[in-house]
Amino acid sequence: MKLRKSLYLSVLFGLILTAGFSSCSSDDSDYVDYSGSKVVLPKTRGFILNEGSYNGNNSTLAAFNYVQDTICNKSLYLSQNGENIGDTGEDLITDGDNLYMLVYGSSYMVKMNGAGMKEASYKFTSDQGQPRKAVISGDYIYVTTYGGLVLKFTKDDLKYVASCKVANNPENIVSSAGKLYVICNGYGKLNLMCVIDEATFTKATDDITVCNNPQKMISDANGNIFIEGYDANYAGAIYSYDKANKTVTEIGAGTSMAIKDNVLYIANSVTNWKTYVTATSFYSYNILTGKTDTSSFLKAIPSALSKSSVYCMDVNPYDGSFYVGTSDYVTNGVIYHFGADGTYKATFTSGGISPSHIVFMR
């Protein structure tokens, strides 16, 4: 190893260890190099957005090595930018090179590079309302807000472009075949989906009735859309949306979902709020055949996971493995890693309360 490189890395390690953080890469060639970065990060890195507690001002962004399943930094945003995230971390998405984070209570959006360093930000106005979820399509990022709007921004520098009025309390949003699909729940009183044409950024006249209290939505590469809704007792269910007929069909009970290779993977966490006992199960749905497999797609599930509330479930697009995050809403969450075939790999802390989103880079 050349002396210059050795001295450079030694200085970086010294700064990081002094600050109480450590790298989680074992070979120099595994590092990513970002000018001005205060943290050494591995190329095989993931990011966990921990919501924190409502009004607790304790949201965090953690970085981890998804090969070693080790946390590199529990407060990456603070370490890189010298400021806390605020209240409450709402969404985290990536285009593969950059990170985009929405913060609900503090009402802003930020673009970060692949090391978590802030490059651009936008503060939402009181008329626009607080941000909820975002989707990237082409050169733009679209954001739902509790002002009943979808806002359009340039992806590179977060410049505001336009707004489109939808219905009350839009939650999730996906992009498919030139259209934006937005679910609106009106704080549990609505069951609507609004459709926006991306080219004209105008909403279709007729809204679509979907499931009760829709809150989450995902789509696959083929444009299939799946929605998570809740009944009056807050029991969750997963639905498939038929674009041709503009109808939804219930697949089964569920509170979290992820898609990989034409299969919808579902977790269902049910809590008895009198005893505070939670039971979690897993099953899958074949998107091509429409068949449900009630057997668990995860193997050798740790007993603690079976008794915990699943708060997020994400698939690593680079190796197909599953990451399941749990929350008790009080203490730091736990991340369970399973291989692409469902084999249990490891357990590690999320670094904060209520891990809600996990994204991956390399």
Q: Can you walk through the features of this model?
A:
The strands form eight sheets. Strands 14, 15, 16, 17 and 18 form a five-stranded antiparallel sheet that branches. The protein has a four-stranded antiparallel sheet with strand order 5-4-3-31. The radius of gyration is 20 Å and the shape is globular. Residues 1-22 have low confidence and may be disordered. The protein is built from three helices and 31 strands. The protein is mainly β. The two termini are 23 Å apart. The protein has helices at 3-18, 76-81, 303-306, and strands at residues 31-32, 41-42, 45-50, 60-65, 70-73, 89-94, 99-103, 108-112, 118-123, 131-137, 140-145, 149-154, 160-165, 170-176, 179-184, 192-197, 202-203, 208-209, 214-219, 225-230, 236-242, 247-253, 256-260, 263-272, 277-286, 292-293, 309-315, 322-327, 332-338, 344-353, 355-361.
In total, the number of strands is 31
Total helical elements: 3
Shape call? globular
Helical residue percent band: under 10%
Cα-atom Rg, whole angstroms?
20 Å
For the residues shown, what is the average pLDDT? 92
- Could you say which structural class the secondary elements and strand pairing correspond to? mainly beta
How far is it from the N-terminal to the C-terminal residue, by CA?
Answer: 23 Å
Percentage of β-strand residues: over 45%
Unreliable segments of 5+ consecutive residues: 1-22
**Main sheet summary:** 5 strands, antiparallel
